[in-house]
Design brief:
Blueprint: E1 3-7, E2 10-13, E3 18-25, E4 34-39, E5 46-51, E6 58-60, E7 68-73, E8 78-83, E9 92-98, E10 115-116, E11 120-125
Parallel strand pairs: 2-11
Antiparallel strand pairs: 1-3, 3-8, 4-5, 4-9, 5-6, 7-8, 9-10, 9-11
Length: 126
């Protein structure tokens, strides 16, 4: 069973940068597409970014384009989200997600992902 664990969240000021990490373990052959979602209190979980097995394939939500960068290190079973120019509206719990082996598209909906981390809180103070 694949397990994902996020880290790197915290409290930062508007305009600051933050780097989130996601470690995968426990059967990583089942991990293919990797993605980040976020969920603010009282709101639905929303897509942030996805990256395919090749890091040349990426997709971003319009709200984070030009500010966030998703990447992965397949040798280390890691995924990352570099967040720059953070805004208060970026405040949310950020979740790492991965598809199982055989699902390789850059999906944008939570239902398409098979494995999830516990989430890490990102708070941007205005």
């Amino acid at each position: 069973q694949v397990q994902l664990v996020e880290s790197g969240g915290g409290l930062v000021q508007t305009g600051a940068s933050l780097r989130l990490s996601c470690a995968a373990s426990g059967g990583t052959l089942g991990v293919f597409t990797r993605a980040w979602f976020r969920q603010a209190p009282g709101k639905e979980r929303e897509f942030v970014a996805a990256v395919g097995w090749s890091t040349d394939r990426t997709k971003y939500a319009d709200s984070v384009k030009g500010r966030f960068t998703i990447s992965r290190d397949n040798a280390k079973n890691m995924a990352y989200l570099e967040m720059n120019s953070l805004k208060p509206e970026d405040t949310a719990v950020y979740y790492c997600a991965s598809t199982r082996w055989g699902r390789s598209a850059l999906y944008m909906t939570p239902i398409d992902y098979d494995y999830w981390g516990q989430g890490t809180q990102v708070t941007v103070s205005s």
